[in-house]
């Protein structure tokens, strides 16, 4: 048995690690190719942001009670993070895609080359998640704390 005080921390970290590793497996399943960059990448299925904050909230709920103030705080925190991952960060990535396409189109139509370093910057377009990716992280964040409960709270 492990220290009960570490249960929420270990749960959140393990949720993050499992989600990041699962992204690599999911990518392989979809493409047939192994790409270990997914272990550290943002975006993709399942959302490690969602799994981490859901796992933290679940562990706090299990340990402190689902009617505690601390659970309420972590649950609200989890919903904000998941909303941000699914909406704000996702659409930020879409705006980057659109901006890159507009610059490319402007260069092609006008023949003007933009030489400033900002136009040569490689911006990452996958910043956030689709709803299904967030939902996958949420489910993972519900399951892992239940598996770890007997090890920490016996």
From TrEMBL:
Q: Does the keyword Lipid biosynthesis apply?
A: no
The stretch of residues making up the signal peptide is: none
Say yes or no: keyword Membrane present.
Answer: yes
Quote the protein name from its UniProt record.
Divergent PAP2 family protein
What's the source species for this entry?
Catenisphaera adipataccumulans
InterPro entries from the UniProt entry? DUF212
Pfam families given in the database record: DUF212
Q: Which residues cross the membrane?
A: 66-86, 134-153
Keyword annotations for this protein?
Membrane, Transmembrane, Transmembrane helix
């Amino acid at each position: 048995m492990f220290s009960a005080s570490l249960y929420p921390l270990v749960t959140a970290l393990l949720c993050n690690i499992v989600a990041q590793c699962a992204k690599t497996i999911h990518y392989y399943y979809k493409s047939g190719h192994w790409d270990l960059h997914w272990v550290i990448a943002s975006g993709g299925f399942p959302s490690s942001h969602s799994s981490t904050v859901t796992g933290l909230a679940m562990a706090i709920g299990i340990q402190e009670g689902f009617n505690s103030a601390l659970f309420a705080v972590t649950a609200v925190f989890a919903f904000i993070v998941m909303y941000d991952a699914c909406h704000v960060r996702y659409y930020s990535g879409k705006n980057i895609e659109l901006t890159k396409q507009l610059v490319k189109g402007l260069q092609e139509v006008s023949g003007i080359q933009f030489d400033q370093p900002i136009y040569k910057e490689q911006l990452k377009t996958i910043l956030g998640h689709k709803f299904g990716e967030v939902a996958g992280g949420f489910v993972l964040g519900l399951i892992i704390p239940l598996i770890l409960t007997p090890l920490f709270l016996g």
